[in-house]
Amino acid sequence: MAWSRLIRFLDDEDNVRFGEPIIEKAAELVKKLEQRQLHAMQLVGDNPFALSASGEQLHVKRLLGVLTPADVPIIRCIGLTYIKHKHPGANNRLNCLLRVAEEGRKPPPYPSLFIKPSTCIASFDEDIPIPIIALEDRLDYEGELVRTGSRI
Fold first, then answer.
1. What is d(CA 119, CA 67) in angstroms, rounded to the nearest whole number?
2. Sign of torsion, CA 52 44 3 146?
3. For residues 97 and 79, what is the distance between their CA atoms, to the nearest angstrom?
4. How far apart are CA 16 and CA 65, in angstroms?
5. 115-to-9, 112, 125, 143, 151 alpha-carbon distances in Å
6. Inter-residue contact 11 to 58 (CB < 8 Å)
7. How far is CA 48 from the centre of its chain?
8. What kind and span of H or E run contains 33?
9. Which tens digits make up the pLDDT trace of 56-79?
10. Most C-beta atoms within 10 A of its C-beta, which of 23, 52, 73, 91?
């Protein structure tokens, strides 16, 4: 792998590029971007799973989401959607079970498997489309951390 931190960005000519940000700590990324001082070592390739270093340093004009719906045809998920509530003396598993019980559901004996369409991919600063059916008392939100790889 040619990178340890991957970003997708617009350069000064509005070209979409991949690169490794030139920073020492992750906390520097937003600060340098806001100060218009963020640079990246360009990575070349057609998709984020097959990139190689070009040796060229570019100025980062704007950050984009690393993945697009075209990069991920289907999203495979495992787990149980819940919101953690901290109950005194409860560990993470118990907190999950308590939340499920609060919602009036019985916890499943095993984690559930489900899929999401590629249109669910959104960047950190993108608007998320909300279907009309979810606008009244049906909308729930959550954040998800995703691990990607060519073989999982």
1. 11
2. negative
3. 12
4. 11
5. 28, 10, 23, 16, 17
6. yes
7. 13
8. helix 28-34
9. 999 999 999 888 888 888 888 776
10. 23
